[in-house]
Write a structure and sequence with these properties.
The protein is α/β, with parallel strands linked by helices. The protein contains 7 helices and 11 strands. Helix 6 links the parallel strand 7 and strand 8. Bound molecules: fe (ii) ion (2 copies).
Length: 261
């Protein structure tokens, strides 16, 4: 009998000081549907430590029930407090990915924020002004971080969390003028070099829910506003099941059969 690990993924919570009481109900029943919760960046709205503190209170029950794995988003950098936010979330049991790896039941997780720059031949090139070169360099560094963490994963199942998109298709619905600020093909190139099972990203609030890299790796945009539109207000997250070999972890939660999702 095949076993699966069940994942729930959502991004762009944009937790504010006034968000007390608004996220806990969203995740109240997530333990019935999933064995781990994945958060794809923009955890806070203005990148304030106080906003992150509100979020840790909202997620307290979930953290007690299952691993909560997250990457930061650009909003989490807005006030220059990203390291403090990272520390606070880690202190409250949330697993932060920034080029590091985590494993549950033999399934490997890695991720990074990512960065913009655009896609394929239309992507920004490191040419001309120093500011342009610095922008492209930042995008390349994020992709290299992802690539080296993927190279360290030796699990059969490999799950990637990003904030920025690695492909254009999950941005369709946004104004094409802003596509270059929503993701970068450097991330896709890194993904394509490894046997990645699935990729989740946020950042594109008005984009499309799914697409594939050129090597057919499934990519899901799990931005909260999209998830609300696609699923429900009560459970606005995408569920995904990944086959596992280990039979000894979360025995009470692992489903008996692989189901199509
Ligand atoms: Fe966002
Ligand atoms: Fe964002």
């Amino acid at each position: 009998m095949k076993k699966v690990l069940r994942l729930a993924a959502v991004g762009d919570l944009h937790c504010k000081l006034s968000s007390t009481g608004s996220f806990a109900p969203l995740f109240k029943r997530v333990h019935e549907h999933a064995d781990a919760l994945l958060l794809c960046g923009d955890l806070t709205d203005y990148g304030l430590v106080e906003e992150a503190r509100v979020l840790t209170n909202e997620l307290k029950e979930v953290v007690d029930q299952m691993p909560v794995i997250a990457v930061l988003g650009n909003h989490d950098y807005q006030s220059g407090k990203q390291l403090e936010i990272q520390d606070l979330l880690s202190d409250h049991g949330i697993i932060l990915l920034d080029g590091n790896c985590y494993e549950i039941c033999g399934v490997g997780f890695t991720g990074t924020k990512g960065f913009g720059g655009g896609f394929k031949k239309r992507g920004l090139q490191a040419w001309g002004e120093d500011a342009i070169k610095a922008f492209v360099e930042e995008s390349r560094l994020e992709a290299m971080k992802l690539e080296s963490s993927l190279a360290r994963l030796d699990s059969t199942g490999r799950v990637v969390l990003l904030h920025y998109s690695p492909i254009r298709d999950t941005l369709i619905g946004e104004s094409p003028e802003i596509f270059p600020f929503l993701g970068s093909s450097f991330l896709e190139e890194a993904l394509n070099r490894h046997p990645v099972s699935v990729v989740f990203h946020g950042h594109s609030h008005g984009g499309s829910p799914e697409g594939y890299t050129s090597r057919q790796i499934p990519v899901y945009n799990v931005s909260l506003s999209l998830m609300r539109r696609l699923f429900s207000e009560e459970a606005p997250y995408r569920l995904f099941q990944i086959e596992i070999e280990s039979t000894e972890c979360f025995p009470d939660r692992i489903q008996e059969e692989v189901k199509d999702v």
